[in-house]
Each structure stands twice: as structure tokens, then as C-alpha cells.
Amino acid sequence: MKHSLGFVLIVTFLLTLCSVTDAQRRHSSSRYKKKAKLRAKKPKGKEAIVVDERLSVLRTSPSLYARPIQRMRRGRRVIVLASKKGDGVVFFKVRALPNHSGWVQSEAIVGNFRKGDDRRLAMLIQASDGFGRLQRIMFFLSYFPQSALRPSMLLLLGDLIEEVSLSLSKKASRKLDIREMAASGAPLHSFYLNFSSLDRYRKLGIRFLFNIDTKSYHYDGDSWFEIARKFPKSEEAFEAKKRLIALQNKMLRKSKN
Q: Are residues 64 and 87 in contact, defined by beta-carbon separation less than 8 angstroms?
């Protein structure tokens, strides 16, 4: 009973703490609605996304020897129109939005139209590192909402972002000059929450909290909340609750100076 009450208090605390991000959430919601309208206008076919840029050369025909049109970046959205074998691999004929088309090796992309793509992407994620690993997890969560692997991907996402938070905190402390910040007249925490190194993560929809006393960033815990809410009986839920407790402690921590 104590554990349940404690968890409720943690949730209440973090929801209150995260209220400062409401404006950002509303902005994100508006952006997603615009994207939904664009998706409604997409051509007929099966939607997929580029996850392996090593194989993502768009070609004029289904052959590894065919003339390349361009190499598609990771995260490029495509519409799969047909498939054909060539040179020992399967090629997909795709429309690479907004205005290119051609053939690409099937392993370069994933989509929920193809059985087993969630496991294939999960294996690629495990073999990845750095920012690319975070990108691929976000692709996974976007394209495979019903996958049995979702709880483990959510847990991994939170752990990776909290690791990133530590390095970002150190980087911000080196880059942000106390005297310059004081001279501007703006609140100290606003400099940290506008720090340019956060931008690439925010574009993925990742949000950070900031403890002004310790001058440290922390993950807002969104993926851990989802696990506790949607997968309460999973092994990952137990771990997610532990991480939420740890997050509460980190946000209440005071500077030793």
C-alpha cells in the first residue's frame, strides 16, 4: 500500500513539474495535426521509413548496378508501390516524398505492412549507438504501436536519454558563461532550456527537465509513464517505476555548493 501511495505521489509531483511544458505540448499537437493532414493526401501505397542509410540508394531500376538517383537520409518517408527481385536482393519501388521515385533495397526501410519489421528494427537498434540509436527507437515507436517489443524499446529510450542528459549538463556548464547570462537580465534556467545542443533531441519529440539547483538536465520520463500506464503487468513496468522514483529524487536534489 505504501508503495502504491508513493508511486501516486511521484506521478503527481512529476505531472506538476512538467506543467511548464504545456505550451510546448500544445505546439507539438498542432504540428502533428498538420502532419496528419499531409498524410491524408499521400499517394496510394504502403508507408515506410528509411532506417539504414548504408543501403538506401534510390535507383532507376531494381538492380545494384542501376544508375543511382540519390542516397536517402535516415528518416526519409517513402511510399512502397511494388517489389521485385534483382541481383540477389529484393527491391521496393517507392515514391520518396515529396518528389522522387525509384527502386531501393528492401532492407533499407521498415514499415508495419511487412511482418517481422519490428524485430528487424529492434535488432538494428541494439547494434546501433549514438544519436542514430535514439532516432531508430523513435521510428520504432512511431511505426509499431502494437509490437510486443514496445515496452522494452520504451525502457531503453528512457535510459538512453537520461545518459544523454548527463553529457548535455556537462556541456552546458562549459559553454554557458555565468557573467554573460547575468548581464542579459534573463532568468538563468531559460538559458539552459534554450541551449542549442537540445535542438536535435527536441526535433525527435524528446523533452528535458532542468534542476536549477544542480544545473542538470533530466529526461521528463514520458516513456516510463507510458510503460506504467499501458503495460502495468510487464517486467518493464517494475523497472519504469524505479526510474520514476529516481527521477523524483534527482529533481529534488540540491547543489552541494
A: yes
